[in-house]
């Protein structure tokens, strides 16, 4: 999971920079922030992982956000918010969340 999380962090930083650079143009930069989703992109095992969000649920919630929040620049489904905002709760809560999340991801399923 570390590589994917690092990639997501890099994409977030890039999206912010791109949004800033294009702020005086007609280009709109939207960042889709997926949680761990049941897809076959990383192999068939992920597609059946019960810890992952079902793809149809992710797509439905994303479409609903796009329809109801037209000014959103970050498209965050509820399931990704604990990851996206973990650090805002302070170091102690972040460390506890980090431990719990990674223990769950490393556990056999």
Characterization of the model:
The chain is mostly helical and 109 residues long. Helix content is 53%, strand content 9%. The chain is built from five helices and four strands; from the N terminus they run H-E-E-H-E-H-E-H-H. The protein has helices at residues 2-21, 44-47, 55-68, 81-84, 91-106, and strands at 31-33, 37-38, 53-54, 74-76. A two-stranded parallel sheet has the order 1-4. Strands 2-3 form a two-stranded parallel sheet. Helix 2 (44-47) links the parallel strand 2 (37-38) and strand 3. The longest helix is centred in the first third of the chain and has 20 residues, at 2-21. The chain is globular.
Strand-helix topology:
Elements: H1 2-21, E1 31-33, E2 37-38, H2 44-47, E3 53-54, H3 55-68, E4 74-76, H4 81-84, H5 91-106
Parallel strand pairs: 1-4, 2-3
């Amino acid at each position: 999971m570390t590589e994917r999380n690092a990639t997501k962090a890099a994409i977030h930083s890039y999206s912010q920079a791109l949004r800033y650079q294009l702020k005086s143009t007609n280009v709109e930069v939207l960042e889709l922030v997926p949680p761990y989703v049941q897809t076959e992109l990383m192999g068939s095992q992920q597609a059946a992982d019960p810890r992952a969000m079902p793809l149809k649920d992710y797509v439905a919630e994303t479409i609903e956000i796009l329809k109801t929040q037209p000014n959103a620049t970050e498209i965050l489904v509820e399931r990704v918010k604990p990851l996206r905002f973990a650090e805002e709760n302070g170091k102690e809560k972040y460390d506890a969340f980090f431990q719990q999340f990674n223990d769950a991801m490393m556990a056999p399923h």
